[in-house]
Design brief:
With 343 residues, the protein is of the alpha/beta class. The chain folds into two domains: 6-155 and 326-339, Glycogen Phosphorylase B (Rossmann fold), CATH 3.40.50.2000; 165-314, Rossmann fold, CATH 3.40.50.2000. The chain has helices spanning 6-17, 49-52, 54-68, 79-92, 112-124, 133-140, 165-172, 194-206, 220-223, 239-244, 265-272, 283-288, 302-314, 326-339; strands spanning 23-28, 35-39, 42-48, 72-75, 95-100, 127-130, 150-151, 179-183, 210-215, 228-232, 248-251, 277-280, 296-297. Strands 10-9-8-11-12-13 form a six-stranded parallel beta sheet, with helices on both faces. The radius of gyration is 21 Å and the shape is globular.
């Protein structure tokens, strides 16, 4: 509600724009008041587990589902909501769609009872969608019957379009003539982020003019590296400006239970801005980049990553296909919902 973004905002609002009646229930845990809001053709509900307590939260969600009795209930965001959507669909007599954009089991690997509930929801769903084929195959392995898990890819929000680089740098107060590679996103050793500093150090040894631009809150060892500039957290409206200020965007993932099924939104956004990209070559990222080798570096190999950076800076290349729009994804979702047989 506060920061409309990604598949949680655009898929429901676009379905509503196509003439469907859509309600979205959000569950928070920040001791917030309940909110009912109509915006962009969608009726939004927010319920807080700390404010209401677990039993009252479940009672209100169940009452809302039984009152609305939708044709479909969609569970997304993480494993809890797959289980919750299954529970509500059963009580409301609705069909169940379970959607995953990450391997949710990697979020809390220790929570085996939740994993069991998540897999049960995936197994019982009338329809399962995933952000890419690798994750779809994993989810399909939990199912014994029904429609195969379908791919419902990630997309860039509409504001991510090519912009004038000089104007973007002026807006951010950056030098016009500098050469910038950049990383936008969460910083985590488990996601392989430390590889980026090693690769940048190697690339800067060849090109001393090279600068690395980082957003968010990177660790001290990254900020202490010569040539690194940090922007801090930027308002959402400035993120397209930041990406378009770059000469090269960097994406790093790792060969982990999370990384193997990660389809980074920041990669979609850089591609939509037509910025050259170098990325670590998990199966998911290779699929997103169409297997174009000039954009891919082997996992855990900072030397090759640096070589890809230097090659793309010398000869900028954006051979990859532009990612789908949220409108494209919403049309695919609409077709899946209308054609899926009952499980």
């Amino acid at each position: 509600m506060e920061r409309p973004y990604g598949r949680f905002h655009f898929l429901p609002t676009l379905l509503a724009a196509h003439g469907h009646e859509v309600r979205v229930t959000l569950c928070s845990h920040r001791s917030l008041p309940s909110i009912d809001l109509k915006r962009d053709g969608v009726h939004w509900f927010s319920r807080d587990i700390h404010t209401l307590g677990l039993l009252e939260l479940f009672a209100q969600l169940q009452q809302e589902a039984e009152s609305f009795r939708p044709d479909w209930i969609v569970g997304c965001s993480d494993a809890w909501y797959g289980w919750l959507a299954q529970r509500l669909a059963h009580r409301a007599g609705s069909r169940l769609l379970v959607d995953a954009y990450d391997n949710f089991e990697a979020y809390m690997p220790w929570n085996l009872p939740l994993h069991w509930l998540w897999r049960r929801a995936v197994r019982s769903a009338d329809l399962v969608t995933a952000a890419g084929p690798q994750l779809a195959d994993r989810l399909q392995s939990y199912r014994r019957s029904g429609e195969p898990a379908a791919v419902l890819p990630m997309a860039a929000d509409p504001e991510f379009v090519p912009l004038d680089k000089t104007a973007c740098r002026q807006a951010l107060g950056l030098p016009i003539q500098a050469t910038y590679v950049g990383y936008v996103g969460s910083w985590s050793a488990s996601r392989g982020s430390s590889l980026l500093i090693d690769a940048f150090r190697r690339a800067r040894a060849v090109r001393p003019d090279l600068q690395l631009l980082l957003s968010g809150r990177p660790p001290r060892e990254a900020l202490d590296e010569p040539g690194v500039t940090a922007t801090g957290y930027l308002p959402d409206a400035e993120l397209p400006i930041l990406l378009n200020a770059l000469d090269l965007a960097c994406v790093v993932t790792a060969d982990t239970h999370f990384g193997r099924y990660s389809y980074p939104a920041k990669l979609c956004e850089a591609m939509a801005c037509n910025i050259p990209v170098v990325a670590t070559a998990t199966g998911a990222v290779r699929w997103m980049l169409g297997e174009h080798a000039e954009h891919l570096a082997p996992l855990g190999n900072p030397k090759t990553y640096a070589e890809r950076m230097l090659a793309l800076l010398a000869t900028p290349c954006t051979r990859y296909q532009r990612p789908p729009s949220w409108e494209d994804v919403a049309v695919k979702l609409e077709n899946l919902l209308s054609s899926a047989p009952r499980h």
